[in-house]
Amino acid sequence: MPPTIDTSLLTDGAELAKDMSDVIAADAFTDPELNEFHDINEDIKADKQVPILDLMTGLMGRKKQNCDTTPNDQLSINTKEKFWTPVYHSDRIAICYDEFSTSFFKWLRKEGIAKENIEATDIANFILERTATHMKQMLWEKLYFADKNAVAGTDNGLSAGQLPYMNTIDGFFTQGFAIAAANASQRVTIAKNAEATNADQKFTAADIAAQTVTGYLDEMYYNSDIRLRGKDNLKYLVTQTVFDQYVRERKSITGSEIAYTRTETGIKIVQFNGIDVQPVNVWDRTLASYFQVVTGPNTNTFLPHRALLTTTNNLKPGTEKFANLSELDVIYDKVGKQFLIDFGFNLDAQIGIDEYLMIGY
After folding, report:
1. Is residue 47 part of a domain?
2. S-S: 58 plus which of 75, 160, 169, 230, CB 3.0-4.6 Å?
């Protein structure tokens, strides 16, 4: 099925806009680049073992007793393993020229029989730009929210038809929930997430007074593995809701605007304990779109406030080649009279070292 292009609100008449320069197009969201704080692993073509070798532990260095040569029996090196299990993701967008037969779009088509081929027109360029932008959002959705065991309507607002788009791999949140379930000390509970309605899930003035989010970030840091705290590439990744609340809390204490810095992509970030706190509002958009849970008369969002404290190389997307994640194959099918956009890539996600993660939700 082609993307639905709603032309019902566009006037059809004799003298209309005739050029894309007359069009006001919504700007794309400002999202971080995928490789800004992810360790992209390439050459992930099939199931592949990831051995994890821990540090040596145990006492050593005894007082020498004459010619005693007894080997040390106190030392150990723990090992474990994970596996890349990449899934091939692919899709096709098919567009017929007739979908642009009304309103101003008609002026953007070619003439005669050539009008059936929208390739190399402003229409095609617009669709390609929107497709490329949406692919970036799709990658964030899959890398964080995908769940192999997802059930439509359970802890999400997915329909049965939408489910195949989200049950492909286990994303970082799905893995993070499992890590926290196995070791509760790696989780900080955000109380507002448990409220029954979207209205009650919002932070309030009382939360500002109580410095609620400041407390959560503090707890995440001081309860984290001591090895994680010693890393110089630590980062808080948070929903926009958590970021905004933290900024409000700081302003309520200092009475002035908090100091911001900007990433290369133009995103404002702040610091906590000398650690960057970066909002990832694509998480908020995904939660608002696909994780609305209806229970009786109430609707809430499944865990709308989320935070990760980890290192910038511990979140590992895996693929065959990074360039594949943005590559589009575009053709015009003369037989089917359709403009086709195809893409395909392997994708998986791995949290490198479980202990190097603190999660708040």
Report:
1. no
2. 75
C-alpha to C-alpha distance for 304 and 288, rounded to whole angstroms: 8
Yes or no: say if 319 and 347 are a contact pair by the CB < 8 Å rule: yes
pLDDT tens for each residue of 234-264: 999 999 999 999 999 999 998 888 888 887 7
> In terms of Cα–Cα distance, which of 300, 244, 302, 308 is closest to 275?
308
Least confident among 25-29, 50-54, 271-275, 342-346: 25-29
* Domain annotation covers residue 66: no
Q: Cα(338)–Cα(353) distance, rounded to whole angstroms?
A: 47
Residues with Cβ < 8 Å from 157, sequence gap 6 or more? 289, 290, 291, 292, 293, 294
Write the pLDDT tens digit of every residue in 301-352.
Answer: 999 999 999 999 999 999 999 999 999 999 999 999 899 999 999 999 999 9
List of residues 6+ apart from 315 with CB closer than 8 A:
37, 38, 39, 172, 308, 349, 351, 352
Q: Dihedrals φ, ψ of 43, to 5°?
A: 65, 30
Q: Specify the pLDDT at position 150.
A: 98
d(CA 53, CA 80): 7
Closest CA to 172 of 358, 5, 349, 324: 349
pLDDT tens, residue by residue, 170-184: 999 999 999 999 999
Q: Which of 87, 153, 133 is nearest to 285 (CA)?
A: 133
The token duo for 171 is: 């994303």
pLDDT higher than 80, residue 97 = no
* Domain extent at residue 103: 29-38+84-360
Encode 110-142 in three state secondary structure: CCHHHHHCCCCCHHHHHHHHHHHHHHHHHHHHH
